Amino acid sequence: MKIKTLFAAILAAGLLFSGCRQDEDYVLPDLRVGTESLEFGQQSNEQTVDVTASREWLVRSKPDWVAIDPDHGPASSAPQRVTLTVLDNAGYDRTGDVVFSIGLSKAAVTVNQKGAKGAKSNGTGTLEDPYTVEGANAAVANLTWTSTSEYQTTDVVYVKGIISRIADNGTFAQSGTFGNANFYISDDGTVGEKDFYCYRVLYLGNQKYTSGTDIKVGDEVIVCGKLMNYRGNTPETSSGSYVYSLNGETSGGGGGGGQTGTPQGTGTLADPYNAAAAIAAVANLTWTSTSEYQTTDPVYVKGKISKIADKGTFTEGGTYGNASFYISDDGATGGSEFYCFHVLYLGNQKYTSGTDIKVGDEVIVYGKLMNYRGNTPETASGAYLYSLNGVTESGGGGGGGGTANGTGTLADPYNAAGANAVASALASGEKTATDVYVKGKISQVKYPFDATHKTATFFISDDGATSGDQFQCYSVKYLGNTDWAEGDKQVQVGDDVVICGKLTNYQGTPETAAKEAYIYSLNGTTQGGGGGGGQQTGTTYSKVSSITAGGKYILVGIKEGKYYAATPIASDKTYGRLNGKEISVSGDKIATDLAANEFTITAVSGGYEIAMPDGRKLAVDTEHDGTFQIGDNFDHTFTAELSGGLFKISHKSTGKTIYHGGGTYTNFSCSATVPADGTLLQLYLKDNK
Question: CB 3.0-4.6 Å disulfide test: which of 74, 107, 323, 650 passes with 657?
Answer without folding.
Answer: 650
